Amino acid sequence: MTLRNDTPPLDNRSKMLRRLVIDALDGGGRGHLGSSLSLIEIVRVLYDDILRHRPQEPKWEGRDRFILSKGHGCLALYAILADKGYFPVEELRRFCHRDSYLGGHPEAGKIPGVEASTGALGHGLSIGVGMALAARIKRSGTRVFVAMGDGEINEGSVWEAAMSAGKHGLDNLVAMVDYNKIQSYGFVSEVQPLEPLADKWRAFGFAAIEVDGHDTNALRQVLAAPAETGKPTAIICHTIKGRGIPFAENEPSWHHKSKIAPDQISAMYAALENT
Amino acid sequence: MSAVTSNLPQRDAFWTRVYEIARQDRDVIIISADMGAPALDKIRLDLPNQFINAGIAEQNAIVVGSGLAMAGKKVFAYAIAPFITLRCLEQVRVNNCMMKIPLTLVGVGAGFGYQDSGPTHHMLEDIAVMRAFPTIEIDSVSDSVMAADVAERSIKERRINYVRLDRQTLPDLYKTGHDFRPGLDVLRPGKDIMLVGTGIMTHAALETAEILSKKGIDAGVVDLYRLPVNAPALLNAVKGAKKVATLEEHFLPGGMGSAVAEVLADAGSTLPLKRLGLPVEKGYCYTYGGRDALHNWYGIGAEQIIDSLIGFAKG
């Protein structure tokens, strides 16, 4: 699937959420920019259209669960949670400040709406299997969504979870891969090739679908479709690392920056407007 | 001890020395669990047959590395500290400790080195955990000179060792050529109280000793940089002091302070000992805003240490 030519342009909402990410980067002076920007449409569609959730009542028992297993992409999650009203949007600018609850990885029990503390990779899908099993036992109708990174699924534990999800036929579980093709120290194709990725998930008992992870209509369609009975779903989201800021797109060095200068922040806002 | 100031990040000093040796010794292999570093780039580009990016798969990296070591290779496995230790502990236990396969685990981000990344990236239990295993030596590095020395000795001595590197750049304490074989050094003599530090907290101990001395307390500093502790050397280093205090950026149970307490107790020492570190009752910290904020939250901020030690020294 090629993306650069056929992925739709960013609409105003997608740009607005990206501005929130830049606000947080500006406030914290650091962060995983590339890893967050590839995720924006995934979290946007989930929280706008798919998840049953109550921002004013984050612990509502009837909610669907979303676990951001690639915790380093937390700025995307923080942006959508703030936008939805889980906490004030102004908090984003206090990212990594001494008295803020928004740190470099998301912490459950501290940040309203965050279901699991992630940052160590390869835990989220197993947590999701547990939650999906519990939902089935309780007959609650809860759906569980887990977003993972493409580098993250190098971890063997992901495939232990996948085998388990397949065994239990968890049709209330959706595993999403943010397949932005770049991991921490290089391109996925060089570090640890994943193809044939959809077939891997199928071999583990999943119904696997590939989608343009920046195309909100396409994402909405696959996420809203009923699951195949008796099978967990895997959605391979083809994305662009750093999407929306051309100088950061597909550029491995923007995976994470620890010292972001003010002029870089200005350049990001400007690039986003012109994209 | 007068310092020379190369003041490199420990990570860069370490991998630069590995690179220099690896160019001559083709048996040196570096496995990275998708972690980069400028000095590592040189190895990756210049010595492609000696560098493997294992991806984000630390458990596999350890055992592949062990397989390489069984065939005579001299292997380094590198990742953020908690992921190259805790994540693959059983792999290390069986393949290295039980089968005695030499391997050097290199973890960057000792203590709170990853600062605002939160507790998943902090390394607060590694000394307790790793020193529980037979055959593992812990190299708790306090400056870049030591980092380079540890790199060289890891290759020469073919040990099973865990190198804990700080992520922040710390000032150098040692001169090139220093003999690090003893596993500890007295950096400053002191008659009233001997402060034993490791890693970044050796630097805190030196600053603390300076302030205590101005307040009339003659405080010395020991840098304890290798575990298991060289017991005779430690007992010798503290014998002239009236009291001993340990400083560590690590949970207190089982840490460096515990190791010092074991040595003193086993030797029948009656020296009063105070262990300063992270009280385990405090749990994990979700405070951001840098390393100092984390230290203050746990009670080991600079002023808190001074207050605590003044009370101890005079008590």
Automatic annotation (TrEMBL), chain A:
InterPro entries to which the protein is assigned, alphabetical: THDP-binding, Transketolase_N
Pfam family, one: Transketolase_N
Domain Transketolase N-terminal: 15-267
Cited SUPFAM superfamilies: Thiamin diphosphate-binding fold (THDP-binding) (SSF52518)
The protein's name: Putative transketolase N-terminal section
Organism: Paramagnetospirillum caucaseum
Lineage start: Bacteria, Pseudomonadati, Pseudomonadota, Alphaproteobacteria, Rhodospirillales
UniProtKB/TrEMBL annotation, chain B:
Residue spans crossing the bilayer: none
InterPro entries named in the record: PDH/Transketolase (IPR051157), THDP-binding (IPR029061), Transketo_C/PFOR_II (IPR009014), Transketolase-like_Pyr-bd (IPR005475), Transketolase_C (IPR033248)
Signal peptide interval: none
Transketolase-like pyrimidine-binding domain segment(s): 8-172
Protein name: 1-deoxy-D-xylulose-5-phosphate synthase
